[in-house]
């Protein structure tokens, strides 16, 4: 029965146009990569500053492996707390202007652990409707009641704060929203939190290295360095490594060390990851032109897409969604762009709400303006093709032998045409 249920679920995923497969990149990360034997322009990486393959970052990781070995060997509360961890935490706290920082194994572990640790039974956590899945799961794990407020709707949030007045409260939001590329109103959220005696937690994973003075994120951009209770960042995007961190007060750090289960029960981050991220942080501090170049590239691509008649929204960030609507059409647009040498990933439910499938474009500091302008034309052609003609060809893996239903690769008779072109 279990196998039959699994096969039925896979058939349903295929029927909904939501089947996924992994592509293999056959080169180091960079503005251009080798994919399936061909060189393509990469417009779906979160390595925003191109540091994942930077020689200085690679050398730091190699040196750490030679000196500290490949793994931490235990949780940080046992014997897995090593000098590279402590050194990076000091650097991150200084970078963000906080008393302390605490490393986690990943952004998912950080968000689930922190929300669950701070939103205790009897309290309430207020979560933006478009927060990352890791925050949503943190709310599910927390003992507190969860109230979801409409995306960046401060009136809706304040009504909830008033309704639950007197209860311990945590407001949690993405700083830069990963799918839409818009920025949370951090200053106004902070003011609401102070007025209602709530804590504020900002996940700035996509903003560090991209927004704010020196790439310090949305909290710094709002002029609130050191004033937000929890700032979460990642080592796996602009810092070119793997892992995550929380910048907090010294007291809150101690609380998380003693209550955040993903920290307590996980092996410490590999020393090489910490060393690589520290080297990347040094590059961001010493080369502010990297951040400026990323912003310039974002402006170039947005202008080129707008000139092609595509919606680009009001944000100026390095995350640019191109609305398509239907998941099958989004996959088809991705395939068409790939055929012309541009890798722009299709994003479908449950990552985004039903009816909002899209191509999610992300910029890197190393992209050249002329190749971005060419990419905009490629993407516009792909979006127009799937929206105007309704013709597409989707490549999916063959269903396993014995599956209940084969994958459907042809279009249904009626398809909604939600596209921006």
Please provide a written account of the structure.
The protein has 14 helices and 13 strands. The protein is α/β, with parallel strands linked by helices and 421 residues long. It has two domains: 23-52 and 289-388, Alpha-Beta Complex (Aspartate Aminotransferase, domain 1), CATH 3.90.1150.10; 55-286, 3-Layer(aba) Sandwich (Aspartate Aminotransferase, domain 2). The strands form three sheets. The chain has a seven-stranded mixed beta sheet with strand order 3-9-8-7-6-4-5, with helices on both faces. The longest helix has 20 residues, at 369-388. The radius of gyration is 22 Å and the shape is globular. Mean pLDDT is 91; it is low at 390-421.
Helix content: 40-55%
User: For the terminal residues, how far apart are their CA atoms?
Assistant: 46 Å
- The shape is globular
Query: What is the element string, with H for helices and E for strands?
Result: HEEHHEHEHEHEHEHEEHHHHEHEEEH
Low-pLDDT segments: 390-421
* Mean pLDDT rating: 91
Largest sheet: 7 strands, mixed
Strand order of the largest sheet: 3-9-8-7-6-4-5
Could you tell me the CATH topology label of the largest domain.
Aspartate Aminotransferase, domain 2
Number of helices: 14
User: What is the H level of CATH, i.e. the homologous superfamily of the largest domain?
Assistant: Type I PLP-dependent aspartate aminotransferase-like (Major domain)
The computed structural class is alpha/beta
CATH class of the largest domain: Alpha Beta
| Strand elements, count | 13
Strand content: 5-15%
Radius of gyration using CA atoms only: 22 Å
- CATH architecture group name of the largest domain: 3-Layer(aba) Sandwich
Count of discrete domains: 2
């Amino acid at each position: 029965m279990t196998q039959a249920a699994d096969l039925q679920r896979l058939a349903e995923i295929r029927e909904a146009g939501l089947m996924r497969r992994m592509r293999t990149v056959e080169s180091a990360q960079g503005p251009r990569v080798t994919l399936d034997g061909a060189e393509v322009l990469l417009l779906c990486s979160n390595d925003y500053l191109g540091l994942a393959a930077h020689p200085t970052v690679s050398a730091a990781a190699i040196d750490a492996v030679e000196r500290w070995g490949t793994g931490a060997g235990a949780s940080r509360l046992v014997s897995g707390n090593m000098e590279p961890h402590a050194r990076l935490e000091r650097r991150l706290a200084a970078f963000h202007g906080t008393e302390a920082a605490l490393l986690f194994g990943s952004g998912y572990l950080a968000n689930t652990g922190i929300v669950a640790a701070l939103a205790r039974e009897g309290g309430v956590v207020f979560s933006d409707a478009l927060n990352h899945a890791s925050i949503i799961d943190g709310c599910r794990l927390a003992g507190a009641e969860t109230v979801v407020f409409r995306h960046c709707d401060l009136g809706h949030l304040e009504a909830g704060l008033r309704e639950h007045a007197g209860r311990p409260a945590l407001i949690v939001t993405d700083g830069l929203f990963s799918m839409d590329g818009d920025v949370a109103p951090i200053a106004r959220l902070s003011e609401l939190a102070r007025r209602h005696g709530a804590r504020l937690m900002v996940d700035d994973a996509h903003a560090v290295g991209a927004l704010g003075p020196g790439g310090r994120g949305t909290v710094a951009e709002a002029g609130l360095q050191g004033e937000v209770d929890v700032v979460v960042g990642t080592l796996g995007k602009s810092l070119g490594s793997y892992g995550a961190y929380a910048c907090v007060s010294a007291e809150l750090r101690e609380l998380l060390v003693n209550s955040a289960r993903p920290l307590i029960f996980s092996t410490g981050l590999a020393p090489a990851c910490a060393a690589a991220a520290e080297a990347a942080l040094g590059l961001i501090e010493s080369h502010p032109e990297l951040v400026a170049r990323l912003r310039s590239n974002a402006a170039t691509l947005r202008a080129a897409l707008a000139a092609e008649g595509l919606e680009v929204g009001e944000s100026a960030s390095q995350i640019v969604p191109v609305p398509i609507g239907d998941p099958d059409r989004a996959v088809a647009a991705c395939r068409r762009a790939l055929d012309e040498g541009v890798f722009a990933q299709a994003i479908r439910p449950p990552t985004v709400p039903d009816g909002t499938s899209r191509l999610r474009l992300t910029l890197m500091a190393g992209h050249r303006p002329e190749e971005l302008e060419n990419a905009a034309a490629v993407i516009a052609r792909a979006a127009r093709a799937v929206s105007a003609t309704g013709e597409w060809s989707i490549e999916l893996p063959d269903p396993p032998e014995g599956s209940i239903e084969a994958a459907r690769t042809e279009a249904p008779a009626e398809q909604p045409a939600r596209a921006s072109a």
